[in-house]
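User: What would this chain look like folded?
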Amino acid sequence: QALAHLQPAWRSTDVPRLAALAAICLMSDAADEATQRYAAVALAIARVLEDKDDQAGQLIDFLAETTEDRDEYRTMIADAIAYHPGKAAGLGRLLAALVPPDGD
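Assistant: Here's the prediction, encoded as structure tokens.
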């Protein structure tokens, strides 16, 4: 599962490795749709950690419309906040983008 492979990367301080791994998963023709969505979240996390919040927002925007796996995406971001508290504001914005207007 993509989550198991990506989790150690966002817990690390090796942000370029996280970004590269997530980009490979996201762009891979062999990756299924669910893997690509998880990779998009991981890449958004990497972009926040790189202070590229605008790019992170673009990656999260298309996920905001799906309800599939939304709780797991939120868990990924919350876990990243725990490991990178200095980036909590930017990562928190990603969390907020995954909460639909009806408050799901």
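Residues 33-49 form the longest helix (17 residues). If you want, I can go into more detail on any region.
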